[in-house]
Structure formats: C-alpha cells, structure tokens
C-alpha cells in the first residue's frame, strides 16, 4: 500500500468512525466549513459566498442567510468528504462555530430578533463608545456590543423594552445548534471587557456600565443580557436533534456531538497561526485587517487605537482593528478579471490575483506617487466616520499596473501601521508575527508588503490559507484537554510540532518606500473627508441629490 493510499484509508476511517472535528466560520464574504482528522490535516471543506448589505444606513446580514449559508457550507463539505474519501459524516469528535466578532444581535424572551443584525462594520456608536470609555477607564471600540446597546439607549430605541438577551453571530449559531447561550472568552471580550483574573466579565466595569446606562434606563441591567463565558477546552453543549436537523437537513448527521465554545474570528486566527502565547501575534487580512499581540502585562494607558481583548484561553491581547481590508483590492481584481474575459482570455480568480500581486512587487517602492484609499466604511483609527474608496495621484505620478497594485497593497496595511506604532511606543515586545488570510495564498507578496508596513519579519504557516475555519476545528479537537495542558502547549507541541512556517524579512527599500507612501497617505486623508462630505452612498454628489 502506498503512502497516499494509507492516508486516504485513514481519512475515510476517521470520518466513518466519528474521529474528525468540524469547524464552521462565518466570515465577511464566505461561510467556510472545514473537517480535520486526528492529525489536524484537512479532510474536506465547503463554502458559501455571501456579503453584507447596507440597509437603512447600517451594515447587516439577514438571519435567514445565516441559516441557509450554514446549511449550504455543511452540505458542500459533506459532498466533498464523500467525493474525496467515500464517506459522509454521521457523527464527529467535536464541532466549533466561529464568526465575525462584535456587533449587535438583540433578542426578546421568545428568541425573536428585535432589530436587524448590526455588524462590526457600523460606526454609528461614537457617543456611546466615548462615554463608556470615559466611565470605565477602558477603551470601548465603536463596534463592541456594549457600545451598540448603549447607543440604542441614547437614541431611545423602542425595542429595548423587550430586550432579553444579546449575543454575537457565533453565539447565535451555537445557540441554534445546541440550545446553550454561551461564548468563548475571546468572542465575549468583544461584547464587554473581561477580567483576566476571573475569566468572566469584569464585575467592577459591569457596575460602572449599569450606573451609566441607568441614568436613562434604570431597569436595564447588563449581566442578565450577556452569554455565559467559557474558556477554550470547556464543554459548551451538544448538538440537539433540532440542531442536527438545522445543520444537516438530509438527516445523516446524528445529534449528541459535543461543541467547543463558540469563538470570534480573531481568536480562531490566533489558533490557526499558533499565536496564543505571550510575545506572539498575528495579522489577519480579509474584509477587515487586524493585528493581535498577546501581552505579557496590561498596557500602561488607554489608547483609542488599541482594543484589549483575550485569546480563546483568556490571556490579554492588544488588538489593532481596521474596518477596511482587502475589499477594494478584490474589486480591482474583479475588474481586471472582467477585462481578461473581454479579451477572450479564460482565467480564474487565483490566476488574476497572482498576476496582480506579482506586479505589485515590480512597482516603485513608494507606489510611484499613486495613493489608494480602501475605505468602504468608516475607519476609527484614521478618524473617519464613513468611507469612500479612492485612487488619487499627481499629474507627474507614474500610473502603471505595478504602481497601482503596489499602492493597493500598501493601502490595505496603511491604517494598521498607525495602530502598531502605539504598541511600539508602549514597549510591547513581539517575538513572532504571523500573517494569515486569503491574501497570503499568493506566495511572498502579502508577506513582503506587510513586512514593509510593520518593519518586522512575517511568518506564514502552511495552514494560513485555511484560516479561522481550520482554527475553530482545532479548538473543537482540543475539547476536554484544558485541565491537562494549556492551549499554547497543545498548539506548539502537537498541532504545529512539525513546523512548516515560511518567513520573509523586511527589505530596506520596501520599508523606506512604505514610509514615504504612508506620509502621503496621511497627508491626503482630507481628500477622503471631502469625498465623504460630497459623494453620497448612491454615487451622486450632494448637489445632484438636492436637484433630484
């Protein structure tokens, strides 16, 4: 028997006998399912494409799309498992659900959604976040669930009188499948601050928040609204018969499968990159871009650019979160793909990205005078309440494909650099920074551009392309082991024991070029503010809208 035949037989056996673990992650543009074997290798995958919608001025996803996307992604995974290994899952070693963090999902006592899901991308909570930050002495970002709740209080929203519970997207899906209203500590830390000593919500801050909210709604108390907090490895419930029918309407999947705590995409990204120990960190690159750095101790001061959250094990993390990532780069890739098709050239998305990102490395180190603003939505770190994607250049700049794509790549990481400077000024030490997300599927380019932006070596694990769906599957495999070994030990000595990371060092010319680009980028932010003021969401200028 060949090695490949032995591996295929082992994979089929793991699926048939319920030794595989399943992770499902709800990303900004894809719902991805990933099935891993006892050796953590991917056995099957499935995906469903979706996107957020701007409805009545707020970014949202309809909950019926959440469920239909869940079912479609799982069905695609089951089909893939049968196609590749001749076996469909009937039971599993564990299941984990992950999703975009933060935002606002509010339910009444019967479990009915009170207002459309308000995602992390919304930036309409400025007053609430500012007042909470001052009252708590702790940075409360615009996208956190408590900021959305308090903004609703400030706005006198009618639904608050019927409010019975709040959760995140991962928490909602987990509750539908298990009946348990729980969250992993990493995801919970995006709802309300966590006390690292207890692993639960900070009691002192809860009292302070209740006092602030109580000035307008004395009857509204936070603690009863929030999900129970659980660390990685804890038992978070089991698949109910109703949950099994929801996840797999075909009826093949049996109830009773154990679940790990539902986590946010930041936490699963940390797992997927082996970055949960102090002095390690990662940068997740997708619709948003965020850096996560595990702290040795608390920060000395409160910084509006830095969110303090936790790892899935409960350790403090400094998070630099940028609302805008690769969406604009993706749009340009779509345009060039259409252009290739118009020329009669058949190609696929990976080939388009490979060509465009490869061209970026041929561009001038500073982008040749071309500026790319990737702001589809507001960007708090840059001081923007709303966004308009733009290309700007001087008449003397060189508009070439290489410079355009270099500028687009730099634009993805420009705002991240502003936040990382704050951590450097705080003296935060980083031994290892790992990149993950779809951008790193094209070898070298994403690493080199990110290395230029942060002036540090960037590693990419072989699992980086699988991302958070693989990470939450690993957390499902970790179920029940927290009492015997830490998550950091489990990852380092079992999951990633074989190594396999590639490392790219920053090149001096790129670092200098990025610095010049960033100087122009910051100076040009007034261009972005003018665009927000004059160009409405429907593409018409303010004057055109008034005339209409």
Report the biggest beta sheet as strand number plus sense, adding barrel if it closes: 5 strands, mixed
Q: How large, in whole angstroms, is the Cα Rg?
A: 23 Å
Name of the CATH architecture of one domain: 2-Layer Sandwich
Which structural class should the secondary elements be placed in? Answer: alpha+beta
CATH names the topology of one domain as: Nucleotidyltransferase, domain 5
In total, the number of strands is 22
Average residue-wise pLDDT? 92
Helical residue percent?
Answer: 25-40%
Provide the CATH top-level class of one domain.
Alpha Beta
Task: Give the spatial strand order of the biggest sheet.
Answer: 3-2-1-6-13
Your description of this structure?
The chain has 548 residues and is α+β, with helices and mostly antiparallel strands. Among the domains are: 142 residues, ATPase, nucleotide binding domain (Nucleotidyltransferase, domain 5, 2-Layer Sandwich); 102 residues, no CATH class. The protein contains 18 helices and 22 strands. The strands form 8 sheets. The chain has a 5-stranded mixed β-sheet. Strands 16-17-15-14-20 form a 5-stranded mixed β-sheet, with helices on both faces. A two-stranded antiparallel ribbon has the order 4-5. Helix 12 packs across helix 13. The protein starts with a helix and ends with a helix. 51% of the residues are buried. The C terminus is likely disordered.
């Amino acid at each position: 028997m060949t090695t490949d035949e032995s591996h295929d037989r082992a994979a089929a056996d793991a699926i048939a006998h319920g030794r595989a673990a399943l992770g499902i992650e709800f990303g900004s543009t894809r719902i991805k399912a990933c099935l891993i074997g006892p050796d953590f290798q991917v056995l099957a995958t499935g995906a469903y494409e979706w996107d957020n919608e701007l409805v009545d001025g707020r970014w949202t996803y309809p909950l019926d799309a959440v469920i239909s996307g869940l079912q479609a992604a799982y069905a695609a995974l089951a089909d893939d498992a049968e196609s590749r290994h001749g076996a469909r899952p009937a039971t599993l070693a564990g299941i984990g659900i992950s999703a975009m963090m933060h935002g606002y999902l509010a339910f009444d006592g019967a479990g009915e959604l009170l207002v459309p899901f308000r995602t992390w991308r919304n930036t309409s909570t400025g007053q609430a976040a500012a007042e909470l930050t001052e009252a708590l002495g702790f940075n409360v970002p615009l996208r956190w669930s408590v900021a959305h709740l308090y903004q609703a209080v400030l706005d006198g929203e009618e639904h608050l009188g019927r409010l019975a519970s709040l959760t995140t997207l991962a928490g909602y899906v987990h509750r539908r499948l298990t009946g348990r209203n729980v969250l992993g500590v990493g995801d919970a830390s995006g709802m309300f601050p966590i006390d690292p000593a207890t692993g639960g919500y900070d009691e002192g801050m809860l009292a302070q928040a209740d006092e602030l909210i109580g000035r307008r709604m004395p009857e509204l108390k936070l603690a009863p609204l929030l999900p129970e907090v659980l660390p990685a490895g804890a038992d978070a419930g089991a698949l109910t018969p109703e949950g099994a029918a929801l996840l797999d309407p075909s009826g093949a999947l049996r109830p009773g499968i154990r679940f790990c705590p539902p986590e946010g995409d930041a936490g699963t990204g940390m797992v997927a990159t082996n970055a949960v120990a102090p002095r390690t960190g990662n940068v997740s690159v997708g619709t948003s871009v965020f850096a996560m750095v595990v702290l040795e101790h608390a920060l000395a001061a409160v910084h509006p650019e830095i969110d303090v959250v936790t790892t899935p094990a409960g350790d403090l993390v400094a998070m630099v979160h940028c609302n805008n990532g690769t969406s604009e780069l993706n749009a340009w890739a779509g345009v060039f793909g259409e252009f290739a098709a118009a020329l009669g050239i058949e190609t696929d998305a990976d080939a388009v990205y490979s060509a465009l990102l490869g061209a970026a490395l041929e561009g001038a180190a500073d982008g040749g005078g071309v500026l790319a603003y990737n702001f589809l939505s507001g960007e708090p770190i840059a001081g923007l309440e709303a966004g308009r994607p733009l290309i700007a250049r001087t008449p003397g700049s060189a508009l070439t494909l290489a410079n355009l794509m270099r500028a687009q790549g730099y634009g993805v990481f420009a705002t991240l650099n502003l936040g990382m400077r704050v951590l450097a000024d705080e003296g935060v030490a980083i031994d290892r920074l790992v990149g993950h997300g779809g951008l790193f599927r094209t070898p070298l380019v994403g690493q080199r551009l990110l290395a230029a932006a942060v002036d540090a070596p960037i590693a990419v694990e072989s699992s980086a392309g699988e991302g958070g769906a693989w990470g939450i599957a690993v957390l499902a495999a970790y179920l029940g082991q927290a009492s015997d070994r830490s998550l950091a030990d489990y990852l380092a000595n079992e999951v990633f024991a074989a190594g396999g990371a590639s490392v790219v060092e920053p090149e001096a010319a790129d670092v200098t070029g990025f610095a010049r680009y960033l100087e122009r980028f910051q100076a040009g932010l007034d261009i972005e503010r003018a665009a927000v003021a004059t160009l409405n969401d429907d593409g018409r200028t303010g004057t055109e809208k008034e005339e209409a």
